[in-house]
């Protein structure tokens, strides 16, 4: 493991310890605003949780750690999807914590009770997955930024991001970040199958995970252009577009499968005599109906004077997101002015093939090491080292061939890369949605897994300008203040984001 990556993992683990400690301390020092989270009515249908032990003070204390949306995730894991509005919480987190509670943490059920074990499983799962997500964030940042120091700075900011409390509680942010960032890393590394699986899982954690299909579309456009223009093989271009379409469908599949499950349970096999309004629509999607009907989500529907405090609460992350979009848009504009798009596409595809080649070579070396070590350790090690050097030389030769074929690659890397474009477009769409459509205070966690925010913030922190130093101070104050506020308010059931 490279030292910077190990450092990111240690910082991510330390940040989780810090946030959990602050949250538990806040629970001890202050009384929760809403104590109804400790109530646990029995499931509407028979459930394995009925055999759990009677609640104790310890089990009640653990169960009360599920606050806000965590109550709904725990309820879905315990009882399934009982109510129409419960389908707003996608199934990956409830299914994961139910699996952990019935396997790894099953011995604790007689002691704490099933519900408390579900909550405990969620906390353990989300804090562990956040550490893995931080590792993928660093590796993805190295691929895109081509700068280990910049990637490390951005990763440190991600480890202590303003929405940290959500990554250490019973929310789906950690799982989404893990599969979203991991999927993007494998996508830009050339491992398309693994990338498609992980991005599909991100769509079963949060609904906006389906938007990650756009990265596959971007990659397909690059490949199709290269095949049609440079290689003069239009069939290869069509093949790339068809493959991207299939992967896009695969990424959307978990979300729409869950909507179909909701339709069958409520519209087809539901107990209500009258069909719900969304069941009668041409495209019966329950998720959009829940957001609009129960929570008033819609275009400009949140633009009210009484919501001004929530806009102020979301203003720091929205400002940073807008700055990130402007900063990288200017960088891409300068890049397009100095280097042809044709050359940028070739460079991006060549670098992706080099990363894919390096990954396959490393795997070949590892397999060879395992197979030869069991028969003749000394001789095997020497052969593996020889193989490794040959593989490294091949990867290096491929890389230097690419460098010689394109004399402007170094300049392109210094100014940026066309690979930044899908990240900027994605962040722009998410920012527009957060400001004009959603409950705006959710922006802090809604945008918290978007890499350009931390890349741009890290760029500000590294800038020597006096004005940048002032902004650096404000960014640090913002991150620290929201970690402290989140740990205090959110854990005690006070409104935060």
UniProtKB/TrEMBL annotation:
It is a multi-pass membrane protein. Its EC number is 2.4.1.-. Residues 363-383 have a biased composition (Polar residues). One of its GO terms (biological process) is GPI anchor biosynthetic process. It comes from the Eukaryota. Its main location: endoplasmic reticulum. Keywords: Endoplasmic reticulum, Glycosyltransferase, GPI-anchor biosynthesis, Membrane, Transferase, Transmembrane, Transmembrane helix. Residues 358-386 are annotated as: Disordered. Pathway: Glycolipid biosynthesis; glycosylphosphatidylinositol-anchor biosynthesis. GO terms for molecular function: glycosyltransferase activity. The chain crosses the membrane at residues 87-105, 117-138, 150-170, 176-201, 240-264, 310-328, 418-438, 471-494. It is found in: Endoplasmic reticulum membrane. One of its GO terms (cellular component) is endoplasmic reticulum membrane. It is an enzyme of class 2 (transferase). Belongs to the PIGV family. PANTHER family: GPI MANNOSYLTRANSFERASE 2. Mannosyltransferase involved in glycosylphosphatidylinositol-anchor biosynthesis. This is GPI mannosyltransferase 2.
């Amino acid at each position: 493991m490279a030292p910077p990556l190990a450092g990111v993992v240690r910082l991510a683990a330390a940040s989780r310890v810090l946030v959990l400690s602050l949250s538990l301390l806040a629970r001890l020092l202050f009384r929760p605003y809403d104590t109804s989270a400790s109530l646990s009515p029995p499931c509407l249908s028979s459930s394995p949780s009925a055999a759990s032990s009677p609640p104790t003070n310890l089990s009640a204390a653990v169960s009360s750690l599920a606050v806000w949306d965590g109550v709904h995730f725990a309820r879905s894991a315990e009882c399934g999807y009982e109510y129409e509005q419960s389908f707003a919480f996608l199934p990956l987190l409830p299914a994961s914590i139910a699996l952990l509670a019935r396997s790894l943490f099953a011995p604790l059920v007689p002691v704490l009770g099933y519900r408390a074990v579900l909550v405990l499983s969620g906390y353990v799962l989300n804090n562990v997955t956040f550490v893995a997500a931080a590792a993928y964030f660093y590796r993805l940042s190295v691929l895109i930024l081509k700068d280990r120091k910049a990637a490390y700075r951005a990763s440190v900011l991600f480890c202590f991001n303003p929405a940290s409390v959500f990554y250490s509680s019973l929310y789906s942010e950690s799982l989404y970040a893990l599969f979203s960032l991991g999927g993007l890393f494998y996508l830009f590394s050339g491992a398309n199958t693994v990338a498609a699986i992980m991005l599909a899982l991100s769509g079963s954690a949060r609904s906006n995970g389906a938007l990650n299909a756009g990265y596959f579309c971007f990659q397909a456009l690059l490949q199709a252009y290269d095949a049609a223009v440079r290689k003069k093989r239009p069939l290869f271009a069509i093949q790339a577009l068809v493959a991207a379409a299939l992967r896009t469908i695969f990424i959307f599949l978990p979300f729409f499968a869950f909507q179909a499950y909701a339709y069958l349970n409520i519209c087809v096999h539901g107990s209500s005599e009258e069909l719900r309004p969304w069941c009668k629509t041409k495209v019966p999607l329950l998720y959009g109906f829940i957001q609009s009907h129960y929570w008033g989500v819609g275009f400009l529907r949140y633009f009210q004077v009484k919501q001004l405090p929530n806009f102020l609460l979301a203003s720091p992350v929205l400002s940073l997101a807008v700055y990130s979009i402007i900063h990288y848009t200017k960088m891409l504009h300068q890049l397009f002015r100095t280097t042809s798009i044709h050359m940028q596409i070739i460079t991006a595809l060549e670098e992706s093939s080099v990363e894919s080649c390096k990954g396959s070579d490393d795997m070949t070396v590892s397999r060879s090491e395992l197979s030869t070590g069991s028969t003749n350790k000394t001789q095997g090690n020497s052969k593996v080292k020889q193989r490794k050097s040959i593989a490294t030389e091949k990867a290096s030769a491929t890389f230097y061939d690419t460098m010689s074929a394109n004399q402007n690659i170094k300049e392109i890397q210094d100014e940026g890369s066309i690979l930044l474009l899908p990240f900027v477009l994605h962040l722009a769409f998410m920012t527009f949605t957060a400001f004009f459509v959603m409950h705006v205070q959710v922006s802090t966690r809604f945008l918290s897994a978007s890499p350009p925010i931390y890349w741009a913030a890290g760029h500000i922190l590294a800038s020597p300008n006096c004005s940048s130093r002032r902004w650096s101070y404000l960014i640090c104050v913002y991150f620290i203040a929201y970690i402290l506020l989140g740990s205090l308010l959110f854990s005690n059931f006070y409104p935060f984001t």
